[in-house]
Amino acid sequence: MTTAKTSFLGCEELEEIGFKQIGKNPRVSRNACFYSPEKIALGDGVRIDDFCILSGNITLGNYVHIAPSCNVYGQGGVVLEDFSGLSSKVSVYSANDYFLGEAMISTTLGEEYMKQEIGPVIIRKHVIIGSGCVVLPFVEVETGAVVGALSLVKGIIKEWSVYAGIPAKFIKKRDSDNILRLEKEFLESRI
């Protein structure tokens, strides 16, 4: 008897891709692409939707959701901690070309002709990055922060705050009590 394929990859198919780590119950779209999967770690309950591209040193914590059409480039390392998520069409770059004429801009030419700023991107627990945002190298989005749609994220985004704009600027504080209560309730229900 043949088993019908779902829109998500099965356990054996995920193993064949060759991820660094695969947690329990991942849901990974058949339409997602992975480059250097041996450098990508997936935590428990991770969901990666259609048309996403993940490449390089990437660590996804538990219950991370990457919505459709996101791009995560981990040359300098990207971490998304537990309960964080990227809304549709977010691009996360841990490497960025210099555009002021110090080098040429094309990966087809070789490293001796390129100059890049390479640095980690850390997205802490309970962070949501809104649709269409661009996240640059050397960014830390602290616990519980939210970044509004179509924002440019540079530097440090402070915890339990809402940011938006180009570049993203502080808008207001976010209440953490209910979110942390719900996290505790959820985790206790898993025992």
Describe the structure.
This protein has a single domain, classed as Hexapeptide repeat proteins (UDP N-Acetylglucosamine Acyltransferase, domain 1). Strands 1, 3, 4, 6, 8, 10, 13, 15, 16, 18 and 19 form an eleven-stranded parallel beta sheet that branches. Strands 2-5-7-9-14-17-20-21 form an eight-stranded mixed beta sheet, with no helix packed on it. It is mainly beta and 191 residues long.
Give the N-terminus to C-terminus distance in angstroms.
35 Å
Give the biggest beta sheet. Answer: 11 strands, parallel
Q: What's the total count of β strands?
A: 21
How much of the residues is beta strand, in percent? 35-45%
Structural class: mainly beta
What would you say the CATH architecture is? Answer: 3 Solenoid
Tally of structural domains: 1
Please estimate the helix content. 10-25%
User: Could you tell me the mean pLDDT?
Assistant: 94
CATH superfamily: Hexapeptide repeat proteins
Radius of gyration equals: 17 Å
CATH class: Mainly Beta
> If helices are DSSP runs of H or I spanning 4 or more residues, what is the number of helices?
2
Question: What is the overall shape?
Answer: globular
The ordered H/E elements are HEEEEEEEEEEEEEEEEEEEEEH
Features:
191 residues, mainly beta, UDP N-Acetylglucosamine Acyltransferase, domain 1, eleven-stranded parallel sheet, eight-stranded mixed sheet, 2 helices, 21 strands, 36% strand
Short description:
This protein is mainly beta and 191 residues long. Helices cover 10% and strands 36% of the residues.
